[in-house]
Amino acid sequence: MATVSATAKKDARALGAERAAVSKLTVYEWVALDKRGKRMKGDMPAKNASLVKAELRRQGMNPQTVRERAKPLFGSAGSTVKPRDVAVFSRQIATMMTSGVPMVQSFDIIADGQKNVRFKNMLLDVKQGLEGGQALHEALGRYPVQFDELYRNLVRAGEASGVLDTVLDTVATYKERTEALKKKIKKALFYPIMVVAVAFLVSMIMLLFVVPVFAQTFQNAGAALPAPTQFVVSASEFMKSWWWLVLLIIIGSVVGLVAGKRRSVKFAHFLDRVTLKLPVFGKIMRESAIARFARTLGVTFHAGVPLVDALDSVSGATGSVVYGDAVKQIRDDVSVGHQLQLAMRQTALFPNMVVQMTAIGEESGALDSMLFKVAEFYEEEVENAVDTLSTLLEPLIMVILGVVVGGMVISLYLPIFKLAGTF
Known about the structure:
This protein is mainly alpha-helical. It has helices at 2-23, 49-58, 83-98, 103-112, 117-131, 136-140, 149-161, 164-221, 227-263, 265-276, 281-302, 307-314, 321-335, 340-347, 352-364, 367-422, and strands spanning 26-33, 39-46, 62-68. A 3-stranded antiparallel beta sheet has the order 2-1-3, with helices on one face. Strand 1 and strand 2 (39-46) form a beta hairpin. Helix 15 (352-364) packs antiparallel against helix 16 (367-422). It contains 16 helices and 3 strands. The protein has 3 domains: 21-68; 83-178, Up-down Bundle (Receptor-associated Protein), CATH 1.20.81; 200-422, Type II secretion system (T2SS), domain F (Receptor-associated Protein). It is found in: Cell inner membrane. One of its GO terms (cellular component) is plasma membrane. Its main location: membrane. This is Type II secretion system protein GspF domain-containing protein.
């Protein structure tokens, strides 16, 4: 046992050293002459310039210049690996595998075409794992943030069933649709946030810079101010004295909400329930959660992942704490023998149409197909709801700004109209 433990530790240390070495590779730009004397150029990640020259000579080229690629002025290029990068990679590797290109060579080709340096080094690191005898899902496990548990489970199922290229193509489609849905949700939330932000900014400018000028004029005139004007002047005086407190309260509230949601499960559950009950946005959030549930479960089940394991992966992909807890409850019910449609009905969160289509899918043996249809329906519903909301909010923005700014302007001119009426 001691020998096995020592060996395991040694392998772990070797793997860690290997990963550290790959992460420290420097990208070099080179210029060389081929056998015909033709000038060639490119770039290559390596530990030092000498290794680049040696590799070029091995390929039959005469190195002319090899220099480290200049770093960008503002930070490092490609510092973040985005879900879209993973989706494009999945599509590329699936296409190459379908065309018969060996996997290791596919990784070389894809990494060579990457502009994102971090993702390029990640792919080269995964390729080294493959060359060392690891399965793809094991090699991808080195980067659990970019390739999450759901992604790795799907890859593992594809490897086990011998249809990895098909699974990767399905994963690419899944990630593309999921990201498109996320963008729709962000678009729906952007407009109301923008309305509030613009209204608040205009109000602060008016109260801090415009109203004090009028207030001084009114004070010099010695006239009694109407109630609306007095309210605006008092608000201006308060903001001039306590603007820092208002700003601190706003920032503290936002930070408190974010921190409370991350640290307290009960608070996150409460916020999610409140959001789901909102008149318009609640409907969009519910339908997007159902679409993600159906799409993710359909993809995992289609890939051959057992239903209970699939539900375990789906629970974190709904984008909602309430629906995530509901999926965990469904998983527990299914694990003791209940039908999926019955377990879904018990949560009281899924519309009758979704439950009925799931029941039909279970009875006909086409559960994945039915779930895909559900996902497509609700993705289209979310898209239509967001487009409608955007159309409605455009005039609403003008109305809110008009009421805020116009109300202040009218209140400031009321004393002037009053004074004019006395002459």
